[in-house]
Write a structure and sequence with these properties.
This is Histidinol phosphate aminotransferase. The chain crosses the membrane at residues 12-31. Keywords: Membrane, Transmembrane, Transmembrane helix. Helix content is 72%, strand content 0%. With 71 residues, the chain is mostly helical. It has one domain. Helix 1 packs antiparallel against helix 2. The radius of gyration is 19 Å and the shape is flat. It starts with 12 loop residues before the first helix and ends in a 7-residue tail after the last helix.
Length: 71
Amino acid sequence: MDEHHPKQVADYTIAALVLIFINLLWIFGVIWVQFGLAAVILTGWALNQGIHWLARFKASRAIQWPRESDA
């Protein structure tokens, strides 16, 4: 049987990270104008905690249930 390998696709990681950064800047700017600097700091802290929680959750899932490709 003839094997068809997919073509290599473009890596849009940098573009996605730049857009996330730009969106965070304007969202933090709106929060700052509406609620003040303390709200921006609190929002940043909450986002940081959420990212750390997701990372720990993903790591715990990888330890408990390894994928078949990892075995």
